[in-house]
């Protein structure tokens, strides 16, 4: 995983702006997600960033066999 940018639209349970990452796993390759920016004491906040895809598209993408 590598950090790409910061989302200013939401905050985690720590009150921080979550950092954006891009998944590099086989099942979710290229899919963006946000997680708590507090590396030392993360609150556990984690969320997929699927705003560009409908629910049906996300399901279809995740069912693709690579």
UniProtKB/TrEMBL annotation:
GRF-type domain segment(s): 12-52
Keyword match Zinc-finger: yes
InterPro entries registered for this protein in UniProt: Znf_GRF
Keyword Metal-binding: yes
Keywords for this protein: Metal-binding, Zinc, Zinc-finger
GO molecular function: zinc ion binding
PROSITE patterns the UniProt entry points to: ZF_GRF
Superkingdom field: Eukaryota
Listed name of the protein: GRF-type domain-containing protein
């Amino acid at each position: 995983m590598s950090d790409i940018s910061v989302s200013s639209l939401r905050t985690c349970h720590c009150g921080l702006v979550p950092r954006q990452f891009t998944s590099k796993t086989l099942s979710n390759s290229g899919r963006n997600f946000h997680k708590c920016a507090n590396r030392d004491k993360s609150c556990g906040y984690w969320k997929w960033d699927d705003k560009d895809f409908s629910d049906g598209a996300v399901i279809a993408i995740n069912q693709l066999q690579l």
